[in-house]
Amino acid sequence: MARILKYFEHMTHGSLFSGIGGFDLAAEWMGWENKFHCEWNEFGQRVLNYYWPDAELFTDITKSDFKKYANQIDVLTGGFPCQPYSKAGKRRGKEDERHLWPEMLRVIREIKPRYVVGENVRGLITWNAGLVFDEVCADLENLGYQIAPFIIPASAVNAPHQRERIWFVAYSDSDGFNQCNSEHEKYAGQRRINAFNDINPPYEQWKNFPTQSALCGGDDGLPTELDGITFSKWRTESIKAYGNAIVPQVVYQIFKAIEQYERNL
Fold it and tell me: Least packed by Cβ within 10 Å: which of 43, 100, 144, 187?
């Protein structure tokens, strides 16, 4: 019981492929401690350092060692690059140098977090008949995680645009890490099928969605304060950052569910 209470009273969070800190912002709303973030883009680094100066910054995930945080992170998050699978790109998948799920998996092995929350574009589940989607699920299961994938759009938190994303929410009891749950494996395939089918959730309230999100912070759910630490040189980077960012209000709901699960334990 003491171990469970520790997690609930002081949750720690680390983010990979952090961008401008959507996951970190949601963790802050939860009252969790942001221990580190990892972002190679200079503009993203400036934003992260500005808002979370006490968190350690890693720059290149392929050259970073995270072993110092082993067994110290409760929730590890990461929106691993979506360009290899996005319908807006060439969809080169695993042939794309930006296919960095294997690096995120390495970090999971090094840190052994209690929870993993991953994010990517909906196109991940259809690229090459779901090859990478299935790989992500299987990799986490092989590490002893129970995983539930969901498709949640921005409209689920009342944003006026669709912005569907696939979310991987995985949990592992620290005592059972590296021990696969056979009962979970029995039903893992069915859960994956559910992720494919859950593309029109009942909580959508918007009828006419634009094909692209408007280029302003309010629509994407990010703080307007971002503009206060930018200048003309970074205008293009600001637009890219908004376009690539996750919607922190969606993550906040996922984090609240995690906290509720801890409370129930």
Answer: 187
pTM, two decimal places: 0.74
pLDDT tens for residues 11-33? 999 999 999 999 999 999 999 99
Residue closest to 14 by CA, chosen among 1, 2, 23: 23
Domains in the chain: boundaries: 2-264
Mark whether 180 is an active-site residue. Answer: no
Handedness of CA 176, 179, 183, 189 (dihedral sign): positive
- Candidates 82, 137, 180, 216; catalytic one: 82
Round to whole Å and give the CA distance between 28 and 22: 10
Residues 155, 151: Cα–Cα separation, whole Å: 11
Residues 6+ apart with CB under 8 A from 224: 217, 218
Both structure tokens of 8: 């609930």
